[in-house]
Amino acid sequence: MTPSETFSRPFDAVLCDLDNVIRFYDMAPLAELERAAGLAEGTTATVGYAPETDLPLLLGKITKKEWVDSIASALSDRVPRMHARELGMALADAPFRADDMVVALLRRVRGHMPLILVTNATLELERDLESMGLSDLADHVVSSARVGVAKPDRAIYEIAAERAGVAADRCLFVDDRLENVEAATTLGMTGVHYHEPADLQKLLDFLPDD
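Below the sequence we write its predicted structure tokens.
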């Protein structure tokens, strides 16, 4: 890193979400089960990701099995209990993949400044990152299930900036949820509402070629 690079760059650390930025789920198997059960596609996710169901999982207060149990309970008035549990398991075990383009961009970032993953995640996050070959992607991982606070609570952003060793107003924050981006910008961070890799690519043009 040269003095001129340090002086001219618009931020000194990147704080990046995981799901729907780096990691993407294949919901087709679940959708097929929902159709077979006579449910509208997305019903299970609506139930499973409702704050009252999802937040205890994301704060590390319940296990994935307990989360599946709560989904099954909520769906049991619409489908038989056995099918409700099958739907909950299909959501919990949905296959996922990493976006190779975004991973390459973020590995490039890490060669020049701290990269911190900031994610509302479960206690299984470390295993998931390992399965994708991403255990070494970031300098630090700030997981809601580990720190006990979830986005968009300002505390999780402050934890991430502290671990980056960078003032909040010198951090770039990337997330697919607008409410999370808006929370970051209230702390002075540069916010990016992520839709596609180009959203990140154009912000990294100032980095020198590796």
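The two ends are 11 Å apart (CA to CA).
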